[in-house]
Amino acid sequence: QVQLVESGGGLVQAGGSLRLSCAASGRMFSMYGKGWFRQAPGKEREFVAAIGWNGGVVAYGESVKGRFTISRDNAKNTVALQMNSLKPEDTAVYYCAADSRYFGSRSDEYDYWGQGTQVTVSS
Questions:
Q1: What tens digit of pLDDT does each residue of 55-96 get?
Q2: Cα distance between residue 122 and residue 45, in whole Å
Q3: Helix (H, G, I), strand (E, B) or coil at 26
Q4: Best label site of 4, 44, 72, 93, fewest CB within 10 Å?
């Protein structure tokens, strides 16, 4: 069983930065694919970023390319999302996800999810 806990959300002005972190418990987490998704009120869950088990392959949603960076530390069982040049449209609840066989943009492929952390970007 894998449990995921996100942290690092908060309120920031447009143009600012935040760093989200997702801590995992459970065996073999270092071998899991990881992803970040977000969901704004009244909108569908949106893919943000994903990273393969060794960090060698990453993918980003079009709306965050060039601004967000996903990374992982397998020794610490964490995955991070560095968010720069934040915009009001980045406001959402951000979720960490993990799966033993998949990483990518399809949220329905992930077996494990965190509870989410709120990010609010003011204009």
A1: 788 999 999 999 999 999 988 999 999 999 999 999 999 999
A2: 21
A3: coil
A4: 44
Contact (Cβ atoms closer than 8 angstroms) between residue 71 and residue 51: yes
Phi, psi of 108 (to 5 degrees): -75, -10
CA angle 119, 77, 25 (to 5 degrees): 90
d(CA 70, CA 21): 10
Which of 10, 111, 3, 93 is CA-nearest to residue 48? 93
* Diameter over CA atoms, the chain: 42
Q: In 10 A of CB 27, how many CB atoms?
A: 8
Structure tokens, 54: 């060794």
